[in-house]
Amino acid sequence: MSVIGDTELERLLSSLHAKSDEQTAALKSFAARQASGESPPTDDEIKAFRRDKFVALDRDKAEFCYQLCRATDSRRIVEIGTSYGVSTLYLAAALRDNIHAAGGDGVVLGTEYEPEKAAAARKHFAQSGLSHFIELREGDLRQTLKRIDGPIDFVLVDIWIAMARPALELVAPSLRPGAIVVCDNTEMHRSQYADYFAFIREPANGFRTMTLPFDGGLEFSVRC
Ligand SMILES: C[S@@+](CC[C@H](N)C(=O)[O-])C[C@H]1O[C@@H](n2cnc3c(N)ncnc32)[C@H](O)[C@@H]1O
């Protein structure tokens, strides 16, 4: 059993992770084609390829996010990039368990612009019994995250890399002091995250950051 401690939810999560894992080979060969520079895919091809891909957060990283949300009694959580809702379920489970432990309320705010993924995510939320902890905003995050009611305790940035900085810029004004921002694969794609790091490292933005040694690197930033 994982840190989630909920057999039914873990069964659902296992099946979703398995579906995501089945797509790993296709993702790797597509990435190799992009990197090789020979017959690189067009923007339309990239969008079409990604349309049905889970690209779910790895289990250990998702469990770590659960733990962070529990340790900080997070109540207002933002997830940048929901896809089929795998990481959302970990975040919503943490919120549910925080509420059970100490009362009160809260929300996990998710974002997804692929309608089929959003519809599937909603089914998974219903299956897990966690729907009422989640507000999924459908559409381009540059529109859907324009209004965020803070203070935000925790943010997961798990999005196509070009969107990481624009998303964080939208959420940053609503972060409470001590808020945590986690961002995936920052070691593996260091150079592509250059603009994200420029924002995180700008002293006026008030973050302290370190890259944790999860597979691909997991950026752990605190709003100080
Ligand atoms: C890496 S996946 C998220 C995986 C998810 N966190 C999980 O663990 O299951 C990134 C998702 O962000 C979505 N996305 C990319 N750009 C977006 C944008 N501008 N607005 C909203 N969603 C976007 C993609 O469709 C994709 O499903």
Features:
224 residues; alpha/beta; binds S-adenosylmethionine
Protein described:
This protein is α/β, with parallel strands linked by helices. The chain has nine helices and seven strands, in the order H-H-H-H-E-H-E-H-E-H-E-H-E-H-E-E. It has helices at 7-22, 24-36, 43-50, 59-71, 86-102, 115-128, 141-144, 164-171, 194-201; strands at 76-80, 107-112, 134-138, 152-157, 175-184, 207-212, 218-223. It has a seven-stranded mixed β-sheet, with helices on both faces. Helix 6 links the parallel strand 2 (107-112) and strand 3. Helix 4 (59-71) runs parallel beside helix 5 and helix 8 packs parallel to helix 9. It is globular and about 55 Å long. S-adenosylmethionine binds at residues 54-57, 81-84, 86-87, 111-114, 117, 140-141, 158-160, 163.
Brief sketch in words of this structure:
The chain is an alpha/beta fold and 224 residues long.
**What compounds are bound to the protein?**
S-adenosylmethionine
**Structural class determined from secondary elements:** alpha/beta
Mean pLDDT: 96
- State the major sheet: 7 strands, mixed
Shape: globular
The portion of residues assigned to helices is 40-55%
> Spans of 5+ residues with little confidence (pLDDT < 50)?
none
Number of strands: 7
H/E series: HHHHEHEHEHEHEHEE
Distance between the termini: 34 Å
- What's the gyration radius in Å? 17 Å
Widest sheet, order of strands: 3-2-1-4-5-7-6
Discrete helix count: 9
Percent strand = 15-25%
